[in-house]
Amino acid sequence: MSQSTTPQQDLARVSEWMQRGGPFPLDAEGTKRPAPGPSVTDATRHAAAKGQASPPPVAPRATGVAVSTRPALDSLPANVDAEKAILGAVLLDNAAHAEAAERLEAHDFSLDSHRRIWKRMTAMLKDGHAVDHVTLTNELLRTRETEAIGGLAYVASLTEGLPRRPRVDEYAGIVKAKACERRLLNLVECLKGRIGDGESGAAICAWAEKEFRALADAQGPDGNGLHLLRGIDISSAPIPWILDDHIPDRTVFGIHGRPGDGKTTASIRIGADLSRGRIPYTGKPCAVRNFLILSNEDAPGRIRNLYEGMGGDLDRLFVENTDDCWILGDLDRLERAIVKAKAGFVVIDSLASHSGKIDLNSHAETTRILVPIRALAERLDCAVAVIHHLNKLITTDHILKVSGSIGITSSFRHNLHVIPDPENPDLRLAINGKTNLARYGAPALKFSLFPCEWKGEIALTIEEAYANTASDEERPGKAAAWLREALADGEWHEARQLQQQATQGFDLSRRGIFRAADTLGVERRKAGFGGRAEWRLRSAVRETNAGPEVDAENSPLKTTSQNESTPRKGSMEGAL
Fold first, then answer.
1. 545 CB-contact burial (10 Å; exposed 0-12 / middle 13-18 / buried 19+)
2. Are residues 397 and 542 in the same domain?
3. Fewest CB atoms less than 10 Å from the CB: which of 151, 182, 398, 447?
4. Together in a domain, 401 and 283
5. Residue 370: closest CA among 357, 358, 380
6. pTM for the whole thing?
7. What pLDDT, in 10s, does the model give residues 224-264?
């Protein structure tokens, strides 16, 4: 965090700069980018906003240098009212932050106090917290920034006089334009300083061209600010693939499927293969990669067991600590994690569990958080797979089957769907959905779940696959397949929690879970205070590939002794 300064210190700092005649100092963030330059200080602007006289300037020091004829502080470009209106709009409606953030960053605000407030708002929203007067003031007190922003009373004043329907987009345009003007002044002063230092004309021109072009590109879609690429500058290199026409490299792609169909298992299989220097499916040698998985849906221990069982190198596995989960949109934390792990393959499991308060039904919000990951993956030279669920819609349209906004599918340049093999319910298919990268008609890849192994390929389109796949209610063995995967680690699991997960998160019936447990021969015991029921999959069932034949619709409930936890008809609650 940058060191806190008072408005009086800001005024003294700028006055000293004006006496030196040098270039603009860095902004309060200490960034290396072309700085916004010292606009009117907080003391001056706060006084102007309240209709008070500006504080007296600090007397210049006797330096022997002629006093600069630069404009007075109050004439530097800024619009404090527009900045306050943006901050006030966020306090009243947090959705205004996303609208303003499309065009603004913290350094675009002229006042240090506004920059600090914007940073606090941004950090709170990224962490999934609401921003209002109470939560913001509490955060400022926690970070000890109340004095630096002008006191808590100033936070309360941000919403005063705000229009009933603030035009945040227009306010952001005003603030962005003023920030650009300040940076132009900064560049002009820096240019004067370089000329005075005796640099060669060619070096100065090269520097000026680079800096002014960067400033123009940073203005985004305002006026002529569109960032255009010349044809000669566009790379003609072939599309990079991990596995040709199936698993792309240096981009983000989606892996979609119903709960329990093996999305996470397939992604861990890919990571395990790459950690041993093998191309998934083909087994051909390739460069070894580290594997990073960010999962809120599976415990780190279970991920390790699955990964190790697939032959993955544990030294190359990195798993998110579920006590400190990452939220989509926080690209800085994601980038730091990828760099720290030196990851070449990254899995986000799942999109929904890492979305925080982001509305996945909103096209604008989903594209805003997913599209930037493409550039991140390309810059860090890694592949990022985002796991996402399908909805309950029964249709052959694979785009409509993806849960949430259509923007989710369109944000990925490649989409894989994991579905049961219509010819063999013990196998799964990894089949291409909507893609801008792969050739049309690429075959679907077959794999088993227990253990997870590649089993060949089949010439099948995704439309044909969905046409042949029945709904969950019509598919015998669905509950058994889910339960087998849930108990694959061989540990004891509380029966009540398993049934809650099955009924609330996976649309399975409690009766179907009990039948599946009976069919699979699940071990049962009473443990802990009160004798809670726990289940574990027998080792013989875990180790076999196909396991016992599953027929959840026709298998009757097993009659059990009084000491067993499997309920009889009409007494399911007793097993919990």
1. exposed
2. no
3. 151
4. yes
5. 358
6. 0.50
7. 455 666 787 777 888 899 999 999 999 999 999 998 899 99
Domain count, the chain: 3
H or E stretch at 494: strand 493-494
Separation between Cα atoms, residue 479 and residue 463, nearest integer Å: 25
For residue 144, give the DSSP letter: T
CATH code, 433 = 3.40.50.300
Quote the domain boundaries for residue 275: 241-469
Residue type, 519: T
Examine the domain organization and report whether 188 and 161 are in the same domain: yes
Is residue 384 domain-shared with residue 487, that is, in the same domain? no
Backbone φ and ψ for 202, nearest 5 degrees, come out as -65, -40
Is 308 inside a domain boundary? Answer: yes
**Cis-peptide, bond into residue 113, ω within 30° of zero:** no
Q: What are phi and psi of 522, to 5 degrees?
A: -65, 135
> What span, in angstroms and rounded, lies between the C-alpha atoms of 45 and 114?
11
Contact criterion met (CB below 8 Å) for 39 and 76? yes
> What Cα–Cα distance (Å) separates residue 70 from each residue in 20, 73, 196?
12, 9, 17
**CA–CA distance, 401 with 394 (Å, rounded to integer):** 8
3-state SS string for 342-390:
CEEEEEEECCHHHCCCCCCCCHHHHHHHHHHHHHHHHHHCCEEEEEEEE
- Residue 202 inside a domain? The answer is yes
Measure CA of the first residue to CA of the last residue in the chain; give whole Å: 51
Strands 444-449 and 452-458: antiparallel
Contacts of 252 (CB under 8 A, 6+ apart): 370, 373, 374, 377, 383, 384, 385, 386, 411, 412, 413
Question: Tokens representing 208?
Answer: 């000026």
Residue 446, both tokens: 């077959």
Is the same domain home to 363 and 510?
no
Dihedral sign, Cα of residue 157, residue 158, residue 161, residue 164: negative
Q: How far apart are CA 117 and CA 151, in angstroms?
A: 11
Alpha-carbon Rg of the chain, whole angstroms? 30
Closest CA to 48 of 71, 80, 72: 80
d(C-alpha 509, C-alpha 416), whole Å: 28
CATH code, domain with 197: 1.10.860.10
Is the CB of residue 461 less than 8 Å from the CB of residue 469?
A: no
DSSP secondary structure letters along 528-552: TTTTEEEEE--HHHHHSSS-S---T
Whether residue 372 sits in one domain with residue 254? yes
Residues paired with residue 293 on neighbouring β-strands, in sequence order: 319, 347
Give CA–CA dist 102/365, Å, rounded: 11
Q: Tell me the pLDDT tens digit for each residue of 10-57.
A: 444 444 444 444 444 434 333 333 333 333 445 445 544 444 444 444
pLDDT given at position 211:
81
Rounded-to-integer distance, Cα 397 and Cα 409, Å: 12
DSSP state, residue 108: G
Lowest mean pLDDT among 39-48, 233-242, 320-329, 345-354: 39-48
